[in-house]
């Protein structure tokens, strides 16, 4: 008589912890709420301590105020986007904040704090440049000596060299975006149209900016495969800016040429 033994199957399975119990192999980035809390705790100049002294300018859905820290009496510039503006304006503001937080150069305007109100108002606290910008200074001063223009050019080039070295292209270099103080220090500002590239060899496909200062290929994307060198585009804009200053110095001419318009019209000459 045959005896059949049934083989016992030993359960070798181990109970695994639930996914929620697992510890990540690498630390996860902080959540949005954590980031907000950290940012709030590191603010050294509370918005409530800023007294508005006057208006420095308007534009792009916001206002720039001259403000004073009540505790230290130090003067700053406060750029406020009222109610957050439209979606495009908000996107530009957050891009500018992102770039300003990443920059640290004597040739780029410094950002001290950023504020955001529950109703959507966004503000950036920046260093105050008491001489305004190169556009207002040119209108007030009239002409610049060759050494002055050489020094202005050197400072702007150092600023662009720093930005380009960090893969940042400005895309809106013009006199009104170049701030000046009473020591004739020139600093690049207004990064609403700027871009951060992955590599310095990458091509740009953004066609924003101020027309009179834009390089020719930015007007006709189809002729360039939809891409162009954004770093060289900044140099072109600086070139137009400087030619305007040299034009202001050409008193021996019986007429004054507007070089920005010449470059603008030359771009579209094939259409006329």
Mean pLDDT: 77
Q: Can you tell me the CATH class of the largest domain? A: Mainly Alpha
Number of strands: 9
The CATH superfamily name of the largest domain is Transferase(Phosphotransferase) domain 1
Basic shape? globular
Strand content: 15-25%
Order of helices and strands: HEEEHEEHHEEEEHH
Q: Enumerate how many helices there are, as a single number.
A: 6
CATH architecture label name of the largest domain: Orthogonal Bundle
Number of domains: 2
Please name the CATH topology of the largest domain: Transferase(Phosphotransferase), domain 1
Q: State the helicity in percent bands.
A: 25-40%
Name the poorly predicted regions: 16-41, 251-255
In what order do the strands lie side by side in the largest sheet? 1-2-3-5-4
Q: Radius of gyration over alpha carbons?
A: 27 Å
Give a verbal description of the structure.
By secondary structure, the chain is α+β, with helices and mostly antiparallel strands. The protein has 2 domains: 47-127, Phosphorylase Kinase, domain 1, CATH 3.30.200.20; 134-271, Transferase(Phosphotransferase), domain 1 (Orthogonal Bundle), CATH 1.10.510. It contains 6 helices and 9 strands. It has helices at residues 32-41, 87-102, 134-141, 146-165, 230-249, 259-267, and strands at residues 50-59, 62-69, 75-81, 111-116, 122-127, 168-169, 178-180, 186-188, 195-196. It starts with 31 loop residues before the first helix and ends in a 5-residue tail after the last helix.
């Amino acid at each position: 008589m045959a005896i059949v033994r049934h083989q016992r199957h030993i359960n070798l399975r181990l109970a695994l912890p639930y996914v929620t119990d697992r510890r990540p192999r690498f630390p996860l980035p902080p959540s949005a709420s954590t980031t907000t809390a950290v940012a709030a705790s590191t603010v050294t100049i509370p918005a409530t301590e800023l007294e508005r002294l006057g208006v420095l300018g308007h534009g792009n859905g916001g206002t720039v105020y001259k403000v004073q820290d009540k505790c230290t009496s130090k003067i700053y510039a406060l750029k406020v986007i009222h109610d957050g503006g439209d979606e495009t304006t908000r996107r530009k503001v957050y891009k500018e904040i992102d770039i300003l937080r990443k920059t640290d150069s004597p040739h780029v305007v410094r950002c001290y704090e950023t504020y955001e109100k529950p109703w959507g108002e966004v503000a950036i606290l920046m260093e105050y440049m008491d001489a305004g910008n190169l556009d207002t200074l040119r209108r007030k001063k009239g002409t610049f000596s060759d050494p002055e223009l050489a020094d202005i050019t050197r400072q702007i080039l150092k600023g662009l060299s720093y930005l380009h070295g960090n893969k940042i292209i400005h895309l809106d270099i013009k006199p009104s975006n170049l701030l000046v103080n009473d020591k004739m220090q020139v600093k690049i500002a207004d990064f609403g149209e700027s871009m951060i590239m992955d590599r310095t060899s990458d091509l740009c496909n953004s066609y924003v900016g101020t027309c009179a200062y834009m390089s020719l290929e930015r007007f006709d994307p189809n002729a360039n495969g939809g891409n162009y060198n954004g770093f060289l585009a900044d140099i072109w804009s600086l070139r137009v800016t400087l030619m305007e200053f040299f034009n202001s110095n050409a008193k021996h001419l019986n007429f004054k040429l507007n070089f920005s318009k010449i470059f603008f019209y030359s771009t579209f000459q094939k259409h006329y």
